[in-house]
Amino acid sequence: MKSQFSRLSSTPLAHAIKTHVVETVATSVALSVVLLGSSTWNVWTTYQGFKNSVTNQVQLRSTSDEVVYLDEVLTMSARMAASTGDPMWEARYWENEPKLSKALDIVTQMSTGQSKAESEKTDAANDRLIQIEEQAFQLIKQGQKEEAFQLLLGTDYQDNKKIYSNAIQNTIAEVRQGIDQELSDYSNRLLWAVSFTGISCVFLVAGWSFILYVVRQDIRRREEAEAELKASQQSLQSAYAALESTQQDLAQQAQSTQETNQVLEQDVGHLLDIVSSLEAGDFTAQAAVSDRITGLVADMLNQFIEEMSRVIATVNATANQVNLGANDVEALAAATSQLAQQQVESVQRVQQLMEAVNRLSQDTLEQAKVSSESFQVAQAEVEQGESEMTAMTDGFQSLRIGTQQITRRVTSLNAFVEMATQFAQAQKRVASLTRVLAFNASMVASRAAEQRDPEQFATVAREFEAIAGQVNDLAAQTNQSLETLQQRTQQIQSAVSGIQDDTQEINQLVDQFTQRVDRSSHSFTNLKRVTQQMTQLGQQVTQSSEAIASAAARTLQSIEDIQGDGTKTEQQSRLTQQQAQKMEKIAQQLLDRMQFFTLNAESTAATPWIAPLSAATPAAEDTVNLLDADADYSPVAGFEAEQPLITA
Questions:
Q1: Which one-letter DSSP state was computed for residue 619?
Q2: Which of 145, 288, 433, 493 is most buried by its number of CB atoms within 10 A?
Q3: What is residue 518's three-state secondary structure?
């Protein structure tokens, strides 16, 4: 490098620098400020363009998500109104229908190209769905709930629902593609801006190195001239004895000049070392500040190094933490969706068990009817035997009472089973709502993972809080319904126990009848046959009762599993809400730190700018508590802001 500087020092430019050292340093400082300002302006312009385009795309995507959510709310309200006949669901439907229409209008206005065509399909399908739902509400008011429910499950409704869903999904896909394209374009622009800044820094470092080298050579030449002057003074000392006092003054001045030149040479060498460190990428070096001309250069160089180090470290750390938080929220949403699916499977198992109990109850009722018919045949046979008439009549009366009691218990058990079946259907609807909320949470999490705007992060966090509240309410309703079902199951167990006791009493009476029929070999032969049939029926009733008890026990176990899954879902919802609050706090801290950058009012109003995006950040692995919510990102003290580039 020194040989190259030696060749350059013989050029006319080097001669001009030697003759105008102060002017050259001032010009170099001004050129450095211009290059740094142009780099800052380029980055600011890129940021503003990115912010305007991506904000529109994100708003379109958020509105599409709101359309999906409101559509599910309207569908659920219509079906619940048809299922229960409660006017509350119709009121809820008409409360949310204007919101859906408004959201669809926003999507249609903001969409372009294929996305606009998909929005028009969504509007047409939505209008048809609203017409069908209005017809369903009219049927409900007329008391035709079953017809209204079938209308909502009809082919026309499902086809339009499918068209509506596909159009929304296509819109979301196109929005995501547009966002990816915007990110790619602005990443390229950012790369060019960084390249320009790097090239500017290289030229600045090279220019300053050359200027400092020329100044250093000038100082060395002055020292050589001073040495020659001293030699001339010594050779002329004998001839100019009268000027001895003047020579002493000149010697003192020469010594002062020599000391000054040595100090300047040391300062220039120190600045060259600092510049070499910057070329190597070391921003921890600091230049010594003095009251000489080199002190101004060292002070400006120190300020530049300090602020670049602070900004790079703050942006890098904040981007990493925000990316980790988005990945953690997405993992929580996936876990919540998995728990909701487990609840749906448990509810289906409970419904299957209830159907099995219902079938067993029907079999028991049929067996009781057959037992009653056999009893009537046995009563006709008893009339033929006068000697056993009185005893047999009393026994049959007792048997009839037991059979009627079993019939009543089976009827009560059937009613309990129907109530349990209704509960299972209600749980299935709750599980469907839980899946919808989990799907919404997953979509918001995906959106948060792709988001880099701190203001949008705050909006996403508030959406997560709303979804977590709805999931918590559903979990509370599920727990309350499970307690009611547990009480019904205990009542079923009591009824089954009573049936078993009555069956045992009937078996004892049948044994007594068998002994009496044995003593009447001829007249009670038919009675013996009928009694054996009744004994077999009693055993079948006992087996059916045991099967019902076993099914009820399995039902209770499945209900406990559902209750456990509901508790886990509630815990996951709390974790999601806490994570969203941490992400909001991190976004606010990043906004506070970015207030350090300042521009004048005219530049801020006339030029857009975009902040650099993090190229790649590590993903979260197994934990959801990696965000440092207590990190300090306060602005650097001692610098006054004319106007903040980004405000909270």
A1: P
A2: 433
A3: helix
Phi first, then psi, for residue 610 (nearest 5°) are: -130, 140
- Residue 73's alpha-carbon distances to 78, 361, 447, in angstroms, are 9, 38, 21
- Whole-structure pTM value: 0.30
Taking only the tens place, the pLDDT of each residue in 92-105 is: 888 888 888 887 77
153-157, 373-377, 544-548, 628-632: which has the minimum mean pLDDT?
628-632
Sign of CA dihedral 585, 586, 591, 593: positive
Burial of 153-188, coded b for 16+ CB within 10 Å and e otherwise, reads eeeebeebbebbeebbebbbebbeebbeebbeebee
* pLDDT at 640 (0 to 100): 37
Q: What is the pLDDT of residues 489-521, one digit of tens each?
A: 777 777 777 777 777 777 777 677 667 656 666
**647 C-beta neighbours (distance < 10 Å), count:** 10
- The C-alpha angle with vertex 372 and arms to 368 and 491, in degrees rounded to 5, equals 35
Q: What is the DSSP letter of 241?
A: G
CA distance 373 to 377: 7
Q: How far is CA 196 from CA 12, 44, 189, in A?
A: 29, 14, 11
Residue 227 has pLDDT above 80, yes or no: yes
Q: Is 388 helix (H, G, I), strand (E, B) or coil?
A: coil
Average per-residue pLDDT in the chain? 72
Q: How many CB atoms lie within 10 A of CB 629?
A: 14
The total of other beta-carbon atoms located within 10 Å of residue 568's CB is: 16
Secondary structure (H, E, C), 284-304:
CCCCCCCCCHHHHHHHHHHHH
The C-alpha atoms of residue 374 and residue 371 are separated, in whole angstroms, by: 5
Residue with tokens 């050589």: 224
For 559, other C-beta atoms within 10 Å of its C-beta total: 25
Distance CA 553, CA 617 (A): 52
Tokens of 92: 């809820």
Q: Is residue 204 within 8 Å of 32, Cβ to Cβ?
A: yes
User: How confident is the model at residue 629, as a pLDDT?
Assistant: 42
Task: Compute how many other C-beta atoms are within 10 angstroms of the C-beta atom of residue 34.
Answer: 11
The single-letter code of the amino acid at 517 is V
99: number of Cβ within 10 Å: 15
> How many whole angstroms separate alpha carbon 45 and alpha carbon 56?
18
Give the pLDDT confidence of 169-212 residue by residue, as tens digits: 777 677 667 767 776 777 787 788 778 777 877 877 877 777 77
Identify which of 637, 648, 519 has the alpha carbon closest to the alpha carbon of residue 595.
Answer: 648
Longest dimension (CA), the chain: 179
Distance in angstroms (rounded) separating the CA atoms of residues 646 and 159 = 48
CA-CA-CA-CA torsion for 313, 318, 319, 321, nearest 10 degrees? 130
Residue 597 pLDDT greater than 60, yes or no: no
Closest CA to 341 of 569, 537, 586: 569
